[in-house]
Amino acid sequence: MIKIKNIHEHCTLDDLSISHHDVVFHGREVDIRTKEILNKITKECNENTFFVKYNKDTFRLKIGNEDVSPRKLEEFFSTKMYNSVFIEATSLDLPEIIYIFSGITLSKSSCNITISYLEPDDYQRSTNTSDSKQSGIQEQEFNLSDNQGNFGYLPLFAVNNSQMSKSTLVTTLGFESSRLGQLLAQDDGYAYERIEAYVGLPAYKPGWENRSIYKHMRYLSPDSAELKLFPACNPYEFTKQLSKLTRRGQKKQLVFAPMGTKPAVIAISTFLVNECLGQDKNSNFGALYDFPEKSQNRSTGVGKIYSYDLESKDNE
Predict the structure, then answer these.
(1) Are 272 and 285 in contact, with CB atoms under 8 Å apart?
(2) Is the same domain home to 32 and 52?
(3) Domain of life, per the record (predicted)?
(4) Is the distance from CB of 162 to CB of 106 less than 8 angstroms?
(5) Which of 29, 56, 82, 113 lies 20 to 30 angstroms, CA to CA, from 191?
(6) Do residue 262 and residue 155 come from a single domain?
(7) What average pLDDT does range 293-302 have in this prediction?
(8) Same domain assignment for residues 38 and 104
């Protein structure tokens, strides 16, 4: 089981300690914040740093020079015997984070995990809309992704929609409303009877929660959707909220499709790995992803710097 233990906010990157960890997992550079944290990793960690990327076409996770099937992650982590793991989440997405957690859990590794996440100073506005100074917050779009694929289940976290009643879709809302629209259009009313949509507070900037809500309201019918709030930068509290979805005797399928805030991805990954791969395996939970390609220079500057301390133990 993976537990979130502590949350830290750092004044500068110098306050974030990385070099003492046995291994570092990271993604690719796409903006200033990922450049700065990856430069720090390169400077402080000469060995045991691995670029991680999930390939949706081969269904395999690239870890350094190895291509690992999600079902072989147990073997990969069992041979490494890491006691201390650092995950640079700013540069990673849901598939990479949830599969690193999966490998640690399946291998029954007892280890400490530190996760870093850097907020940007600002996001790039789309050039297809009117100038941001003249547009209301509701109309502003953002250049965050170049391409988005179809939503698909992640191996180890798939549910069978054909054998049960319709599922509840659980999603966190970001600033790209087209992603939820695409998912619902792709489903066309077949699999989901209800939506539980979460919006993070406090927002990245004051009032920015209104951007998310306004952009998504066209998809959230009062008859079939419920809008909920969650602590935006606190995955510990969000996992506690999610645990309320697992009421004793709860048999309805829940399908998670996180689309906003990296701390929410950390919380959902922790929740799903514990529920689906832990001692009491729950096959009624699934995870969907659309594998967007992050736009280069999608954000500017570096904002708040967070790290999260987690613990993996096999005896709980």
Answers:
(1) yes
(2) yes
(3) Bacteria
(4) no
(5) 56
(6) yes
(7) 75
(8) yes
Cα(118)–Cα(23) distance, integer angstroms: 19
Whether residues 144 and 82 fall in one domain: no
In 89-153, which ranges are E strands? 111-118, 122-123, 145-147, 152-153
Dihedral sign computed on CA atoms, order 270, 275, 281, 282 = negative
Please tell me whether residues 186 and 242 are part of one structural domain.
Answer: yes
Distance CA 187, CA 177 (A): 16
Residue range 156-212, pLDDT digits in tens:
999 877 666 788 999 998 877 788 888 988 887 778 889 999 999 887 777 777 778
Instruction: Provide mean pLDDT across the span 299-307.
Output: 88
Instruction: Count up the domains in the chain and report the number.
Output: 2
Q: Which CATH number belongs to the domain containing residue 134 in this structure?
A: 3.40.50
Q: Using N-to-C axis directions, what is the helix angle for 94-106 and 73-80, rounded to 10°?
A: 60
Query: Bigger pLDDT: 123 or 168?
Result: 168
Q: 62 with 114, same domain?
A: yes
Query: Exposed/middle/buried for 115, CB within 10 Å: 0-12, 13-18, 19+?
Result: buried
Q: In this predicted model, which residue has the larger pLDDT, 46 or 8?
A: 8
139 has a pLDDT exceeding 60: no
86 close to 104: Cβ distance less than 8 angstroms: no
Q: Are residues 141 and 257 in the same domain?
A: yes
134 and 166: one domain? yes
Residue 255 structural domain: 128-294
41: left (phi over 0), alpha (psi -120 to 50) or beta: alpha
**Angle 288-294-297 from CA coordinates, rounded to 5°:** 155
What is the residue-wise DSSP string for 193-213? EEEEEEEEES-SSTTTHHHHH
Please give the structure tokens belonging to residue 278. 């832990």
How high is the pLDDT of residue 133? 47
CB distance 53 to 27 below 8 Å: yes
Instruction: Residue 294: count other Cβ atoms within 10 Å of its Cβ.
Output: 18
